[in-house]
Amino acid sequence: MRVIKKIESKRITRDSDIKKAADQVAKEMNLKRNVSRGWIWRWKKANGITYRIPTKVGRKTKDTDDDIKAMETYEAQLEEIHLQMVDPSTIWNMDQTSVALQNPYRKTLALKGSNDVPIIQPPGDRENMTVLLMVAADGTKHPAVIVFKGAKKTGVLSTNVMKKLLIPENVIVKSNRKGWWTNDFDLVYLKEAFPVSDTQVTQILLRDQCKAHLSQESADLLEERCVHQVLIPKGKTGDKQPLDVGVNGPFKAIMRRNYHEWMDHQTAVAKSGYLKKPSRQDFVDFVSAAWNEVSPLIIESSFVKAGVLPEPTYMLADYVPDGNAPFEFDFSE
Fold it and tell me: So what's the pLDDT on residue 34?
C-alpha cells in the first residue's frame, strides 16, 4: 500500500522503493526475510505495476462551458454541410505539421552482451521543418509547402541556394528565420489556392486556431473569394481535423521510411565518422515522394473519420448535384 500511495501521489517510483517498503514492513512485523528481485517482480505482476515513461500534463480534461458551446457550434456547421450535400471537392482542410529533419529510430538490433551499440547515423540535436498540407474531401491534394529555416543574417535561403534546388511540381519551398508558418505566408498561399474567378463557387476551409489563421486579413481575403472558414474548436483537432486524424500520420511514416532508405544507401561519411546529414534537396525529395504516396482513399477516409463527411465520396456519388450552380450556406446560427 505504501508503494501504491507513492505512485498515486505522482512521484517517481522504482524497484528500490518496493524493496525499501518491504524491508520496513518486515522489520515492523519482526520478520527475517530477504526481498529478492524475483519477489519484487512477482509483487509488481500481482498488482499490475510495470515501468512506464512519464507523460506530460496535457490540456484540461474537463471542458468548460465555452468549450462545449464552441463544439456545439462546430457540430451544427458540419450538420449543415451534411444536409446540403455539399460537393466534397469544395471542402478543404489545411494544416501545418512539424517534421523532423533527422528521423532516427530509438532502438536498433544488436548482439546480446555487447557493451556498446555504435551507430553511424548523423548525430546532433533534432531539428524540425514545417510542412503545410492542404487536401479536399474528394482526395484532391494541393502541393506540399516546406518552410526551411533561413540563413542567420538574412533569415531566408539565398537566391543561389533556391536556384540549385530541383523542386517537383507537388512541392513548394519557402523559408524564414524560424522555419514557421507566418501570416504573410498564409495570405500568399490563400490567394494562390483560392484564385478569383468569374464563376465563383462557394467553398469551405476547415482550419485549426493557429495564430496565422485568425488574422483579419486572412478572414477578409477568404470572404472575398467566397470561402467559408470553419475553425475547429481548440483541443479537438486530434479528433475533428481530417489531416490530424488520418493523413499526417501516414505522411510522416513514409517520410521516416524514406529517410532510412536514404541512410541505407548513403556512403558519404564526415570526418567524425558519422554519415553526412541529408541535404535540403534530399528533404525536398523526401517530402515529394511521401506526399505523392498519400492516396486519395486515405484522404477521403480521414474526412469521414473526422465527421466532416457522412460517407466516402464513392458512396456519395449518386447524391452530389451536377452543374456549376453555387451552393448556399448559412453559418450565422
Answer: 79
- Please indicate, yes or no, whether residues 10 and 157 belong to a single structural domain of this protein: no
Q: Which of 92, 90, 74 is nearest to 320 (CA)?
A: 90
> What range defines the domain where residue 34 resides?
2-46
State residue 57's pLDDT score. 58
Do the strands 144-149 and 128-136 form a parallel or antiparallel pair, or are they unpaired? Answer: antiparallel
pLDDT tens-digit map of 5-64: 878 877 888 888 888 888 888 888 888 777 888 888 888 888 888 887 776 655 555 778
Query: Do 72 and 15 fall within a single domain?
Result: no
Choose from 76-90, 102-116, 214-228 the range with maximum mean pLDDT: 214-228
Q: What is the CATH number of the domain that holds 149?
A: 3.30.420.10
Nearest alpha-carbon partner for 179 in 59, 283, 275, 286? 283
The whole-angstrom separation of Cα 205 and Cα 226 is: 10
Contact call for residues 185 and 174 (beta carbons, < 8 A): yes
Q: Which residues contact 237 (CB under 8 A, 6 or more apart)?
A: 95, 208, 244
What DSSP string describes 99-110?
EESS---S----
Cα-Cα-Cα-Cα torsion 63, 67, 73, 79, nearest 10 degrees, comes to -30
Question: Degrees (nearest 5) of the Cα angle 159, 287, 122?
Answer: 85
Structurally, how many domains does the chain consist of?
A: 2
Nearest to 175 by CA among 30, 296, 283: 283
Q: Are residues 161 and 38 in the same domain?
A: no
Shared-domain flag, residues 194 and 90: yes
Structural domain contains residue 227 = yes
90 in a structural domain: yes
The C-alpha cell at 175 is: 523559408
Residue identified by cell 470561402 is: 227
Q: CA–CA separation, 68 vs 72, rounded Å?
A: 6
* Residue 56 is assigned to a structural domain of this protein: no
Tens digit of each residue's pLDDT (9 = 90 or more) over 248-294: 999 999 998 888 888 777 767 777 667 777 888 999 999 999 999 99
**Higher-pLDDT residue of 151, 101:** 151
User: Per the domain annotation, does 220 fall within a domain?
Assistant: yes
